[in-house]
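Reposting from the mailing list since nobody answered there.

I have sequence plus structure tokens for a pair of proteins and want to know whether others read the tokens the same way I do. The first protein:
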Amino acid sequence: MTREEWLQRAVEIYRPWFLDLGKPLPEVVRVSIGFTSGGMRSKARAECWNSVSSTDGTNEIFISPTQDDPVQIVATLLHELIHAADDCKSGHKGEFMKMAKALGFLAKFTDSANRTEELNETLSQILKTLGPMPHSPLVALVAEGAGKKKQTTRMLKLVAYDCPCEYSVRTTRQKLEDIGFPLCPHGVAMKEETP
């Protein structure tokens, strides 16, 4: 069984819960393990995309591959299914909040870790039904410097060398070209720092 098949089995377990709330899940909901739109550095556990985001009108749920706690994974899936039942229209308010409370989530509703003990016990029972998840968490290690924003503006250090105050400031080359070199508080022209 793949991780996605395991998650789809969990979706089918949850389906009657939503029928009981009068908020049935869409007939098809795709659930995958994959990074959210924030990428590998995102701390989001999961993300649900509304039906208009998919060319075939299907809600898509991505559970982050960095997740490693099976109870949290099934809780996160349930949280994202609330979004799917609402087609992501309410954010974490209104209809979402009503469904979340009814299913056993607690405020702050943006975090699927806020749950009643009763929901935690039910999730543990669901895990016994599902069996072990065929998943090992991905450790998002990034090569030194990879993924960092490239510096686009180099700040230059200017110093008043000809003044005992040795006043210094930082500015951009563009500012120097547009306005010129500034003066220190004593009126002495500042120059670019030399190494």
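The second protein, same order (residues first, tokens after):
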Amino acid sequence: MTSRAVVVDRPGVHRLVSGAEPEPGPGEVRVRVAAAGICMSDREVYDGRRDAAYVRYPVTPGHEWSGTVEAVGEGVAPELIGRRTVAEGFRACGRCARCRGGDTSLCTAGYDETGFTRPGAFADHVVVPARLLHPLADDADLRAAALLEPAAVVAAAVRSSRPEPGERIAVVGAGTLGLLAVQLLAASSPGELAVIDPRTERTRLARAFGATVACAPEEAETSHGRYDLVVETAGAPTTAASSCLLARRGGRVVLTGMFAPGATGIDPVHLSLSQLTVRTVFGASSAAWSFAVRAFTTGLLDPAPLVTHEFPLERYAEAVALVGGGDPGTGKVLLRP
């Protein structure tokens, strides 16, 4: 049997290759990919804009994915074969102080992640350590489950922010992360759940997910100091600073967006005088993954409406060009091997 994979040899250069199905080694599984999401990090890999420390060319991208276990390596329970699953992307060592404390996304053994330094899921098959799997229900929607990686990042933000019933909450950005955050935060019974984004198409979807208020960034300037909790998901040049302005004195801010060098800094005077608690999120720990999978399994989280485009592997170039292309009608783009 043959297996195909997209390989990005260097920025702007890719090819679709065919070869033998990859064999899982000891402690590993081979998963037949059902769907793989494309995010801005994947676009950065293709364009050559990702920090060199966080990518290793040539690479098969794809860190957001779902599939079915097809084969297991030595030492792995054969009962996993046939299970629908997702898997953590970080190849955490499990031995350092951060891993032992549960912060597997902060592993100090060095950065190593499926789809960036290891072959990812823009392929028919992906091989991963069995210890990273999060098996799903037998009837799980694998198309929707491909979004459980960004959902785990959002879960990390929600868990760290500790929302309480009746609080005023704002979500800055209505992209994939923002809309998933709305779903999880709505479950905490907020007194107000506002979404701030200039795209009316996206804010309309946010309302369907439980947002009570939706407005453009310029309209939100009248709400400075209003919110108990602000969850930033946009990663735009000004949103870290503007999110802190939205929080009330003594409020909490969680930054989940990936910011580029030169982004507007947070005013330290405002930060100290307002006594804000500011946290950041980089990836997702194993605990956050478990949280997201439970929310998905129980129906609390439904990523399916976020998918707007699906492409076969042969149309990878067309698919990746849509991501970050500026079309407000583009939501999550999937590759379907």
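Reply #1 (J.P.):
I read it the same way you do. The chain has a mean pLDDT of 96.
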